[in-house]
Design a protein that fits this description.
This protein is α/β, with parallel strands linked by helices. The chain has helices spanning about 20-30, 45-50, 60-65, 65-75, 90-100, 115-135, 165-175, 185-190, 200-215, 265-285; strands at about 10-15, 35-40, 55-60, 80-85, 105-110, 140, 145-150, 155, 160, 180-185, 220-225, 230-240.
Length: about 290
Amino acid sequence: MATATGQSPVRLAVLDSDTGFLQVLANRLDAAGWQHRVLASPVPTDALVSMRLNVLVIDLAVLGPAGWSYLEKVCERLPSLGVIVCTGRSSVSQRVRGLRLGADDWVTKPCHPEELIARAEAVARRRRRAEAARAEVGPVLAGELEIRADQFQAFAGGRSVDLTRREFEVLQLIAHAEGRVLQREEIYQQVWGYTMAHGDRSVDVFIRKVRQKLEQASPSWQYIHTHFGVGYRFDPEAREGHEDLGHEGGGPGDPAGQQPARRATGKGAAEQGIDSVLDKMRTSLA
């Protein structure tokens, strides 16, 4: 049975203990032809993957203090899964925290089951559109790096860089800027979806994490450059003393979009030295 929007039914799981609410919700979901299940307790992310869910609804009150860490883990490790927090009364700071951890929506109880279903359908619809858009975008090849939007991951020499969802989103954004300097505020707005608060260092912290992982996976290349007081730029450069033998010369035979290896000139080496010093300063302040 298709939904009102013509899409296939949504696979949904609800982590909740409110039996009355769950019964009414189940009746509505059955009428809509959705596949659904109730989770009595938090399950490992691998188990969630095997369920092939579109949307997970979580009542944080059921999980207690561990709810926040579980929410963050699910959002980070399952980037294609839509997540809705449906819980009791909460403060603005709690709702903001949940959304910034990766939840797609927040619904306050008591709520009508039809509203929750409509919100779940909207989340699933946005996710499907995003997946379709990612499928149309080919991999980005730069230096030794291959950035795959369809897998939420980057690879160096065929090995996964092992980025979290948020780290990948940061890398993908600056890589698609094609050498343009992106201000911290712009990165935050695009990745987190909110205006960056004064003094927030989230962008610097995540850039540092991404940079460290790229350096470990591809030590002969420098990918991210710091523009002190402004932001960051993605521009692959072969480090001094290294060369990419697989793409030496950068001739017409290079794969489309592949950045050829470049030896660092005197100016490039100086810029890299300054960039390294500034990055260490930021790391110590983060």
